[in-house]
Amino acid sequence: MNPRITPITEANRAGWNSIAGRREGRPLEQFRAGAVGLEDFERELAGDVRGRRVLQLACSFGDEVLSWANLGARAIGVDISDVAIEHARRRAAEAGIDADFRRADMFDLPADLVDLDLIHLSWGAICWVPDLAVFAGIVAGRLRPGGSVLLCDHHPAWEVLAVRGDNQLAVAGDYFGREQHRATTDDAKLPIGANGESPLRAFVWPVSDVVMALINVGLELEAFFEAPAPQLYAGLGAAADALPACYVIKATAP
Ligand SMILES: C[S@@+](CC[C@H](N)C(=O)[O-])C[C@H]1O[C@@H](n2cnc3c(N)ncnc32)[C@H](O)[C@@H]1O
What we know:
alpha/beta
């Protein structure tokens, strides 16, 4: 086994295999008709992807990869879960979309995935990374000069804050947890398909660590913002507008 793949990663692979079959994407007829299930800011930051090589890491059942393909990209998705990748391949075939799905750990990517124009990670991806410096080095090593990484993920503040009622929050985790992986106990954060219990261990990386890891491998920061998403703090009331729920980074190889 690649020494960079930890026992935690392998345990998460087994956990995701048990969950992935219960996860469903957008109806396929929508993709057949050209649907794009990406946020407007993701599309804007990515720019024109026609003919570009776009890789999504931790792609799950592949909806975002199918979306990049519908925008004209040569789209590739990597996921550690065998079940998720089978699912994604079946969905692409049924939608009639040309997309390339590979089963791999993002720390052990297939050798041909180089010279990429864009590497995309989103909504529950960075929390599976056991070592940020290694991760940033892998991403930088796979981009072509001028290629970018676009990371759009849940804010670590959201990861550690648990809603207890109207305008009431509890600190249920360590914002500076870093390598200390932990099981998700807050129902609001369980992945879809987990059925009330998660066999997964996730990492909480402070936003500043993620930014600095990318800068430290020579990538140039092009965009960085945090944003609220009140629906992620269900039950908190109006205070949810005052909290960060997600963050977005675009960094580009010189
Ligand atoms: C919450 S989903 C990703 C979110 C995806 N963008 C979506 O919206 O569906 C998390 C995915 O990460 C994958 N994953 C976890 N650890 C991974 C790793 N080390 N390498 C690649 N994929 C991984 C899981 O198998 C799972 O499909």
